[in-house]
Amino acid sequence: VGPVRLGQVAYVDGPRVRVDEIIEDSRCPSDLLCVWAGRLIVRATVLGRGWEKQLRMTLGEPVAVADGALTLITATPVPTRRKPVGMPEPYRFTFAFQGGL
């Protein structure tokens, strides 16, 4: 399944995951050179067969879930210094799950 928006459920080779909230988005703008790359942290709900668990997930860092690891692998839009004209583009998230039987 392709990228999902805030509140939508992504099916990730086993578990399902929904991003409920952006906790922090301090990523370096793509059109700027930064000393620190920053980070994106979200609160997500992971849903399995008969269970659910809330997690804090940081972009690019695997989190142990069930019998594997769930990773938030991409998040768009990437910040820029330029202010967008009109409405800002909504966040979209892509996840990967490694492990499982």
Description:
The chain has 101 residues and is mostly beta strands. Helix content is 0%, strand content 51%. It contains no helices and 8 strands. The protein has strands at 4-5, 9-11, 16-25, 40-48, 51-58, 63-65, 68-76, 92-99. The strands form 2 sheets. A 4-stranded antiparallel β-sheet has the order 1-8-7-6, with no helix packed on it. A 4-stranded antiparallel β-sheet has the order 2-3-4-5, with no helix packed on it. Strand 4 and strand 5 form a beta hairpin. It is elongated, with a radius of gyration of 14 Å. The mean pLDDT is 88.
In short:
This protein is an all-beta fold.
Protein topology:
Blueprint: E1 4-5, E2 9-11, E3 16-25, E4 40-48, E5 51-58, E6 63-65, E7 68-76, E8 92-99
Antiparallel strand pairs: 1-8, 2-3, 3-4, 4-5, 6-7, 7-8
